[in-house]
Write a structure and sequence with these properties.
197 residues, alpha/beta, 7-stranded mixed beta sheet, 3-stranded mixed beta sheet, 26% helix
């Protein structure tokens, strides 16, 4: 792999465009991923926000569930924001019927933990490993992490709740950094992809 990693954004639902812009600003070659053959061409993948149940059903419909699980299990770098965090959890508290996860992070996640859409908020979040002060996090019907297993490392908390976790090549945040114009987390993930390459 050259110095410009190819990073996909799962483009089934959610704020795909914003992630593509943030990744491009972090010197990655960013492209949407909707099909297994597109997934096969990327060095890393972002799972955007959206509705986690819908996303898991669409992934199944598009034949992506098993290829995604296989690539993540094989160590492909992956970054999930909001609904993407839920998809990366090994376990969800009170999952919706038919909701599946991809796994990858030894954590238990609570859906919509910070409240409904009208209780969305922005907050400054100190993230371990991110220089230059706190990251502005946009929390929209955001989950939080109830607990993590031995392999997962908590890298940020807000209001006493875990909101960012990393395990090996998998990264997850409860909040949406792609909506703020601060692309440091995308740059951090791009470096993870480079290191894995």
């Amino acid at each position: 792999m050259n110095d410009t990693p190819v990073i996909g954004v799962l483009a089934l639902q959610g704020d795909v465009r914003e992630h593509l812009i943030a990744l491009a600003s972090a010197d990655a070659l960013a492209r949407p991923v909707r099909r297994p053959e597109e997934l096969a061409e990327v060095d890393g993948l972002v799972l955007p926000g959206g509705e986690s149940t819908t996303m898991s059903k669409l992934a199944a419909l598009f034949g992506l569930l098993d290829p995604l699980r296989e690539r993540i299990a094989a160590g492909m770098p992956v970054y999930g924001t909001c609904a993407g965090m839920i998809l990366l959890a090994d376990k969800i508290l009170d999952p919706r019927s038919g909701q599946e996860t991809l796994g990858g992070i030894d954590m238990i996640v609570r859906r919509n933990a910070f409240g409904r859409q009208n209780e969305s908020f922005e907050a400054a979040v100190e993230v371990a490993g991110i220089d230059g002060g706190p990251v502005e996090g946009v929390f929209i019907r955001a989950p939080w992490v109830e607990s993590v297993g031995a392999g997962a490392k908590v890298i940020a908390e807000h209001g006493g709740h875990i909101v960012a976790v990393r395990q090996n090549n998998a990264l997850a945040t409860s909040f949406h950094p792609e909506l703020t114009g601060d692309h440091r987390l995308h740059a951090y993930f791009t470096e993870m992809v480079r290191a894995a390459g």
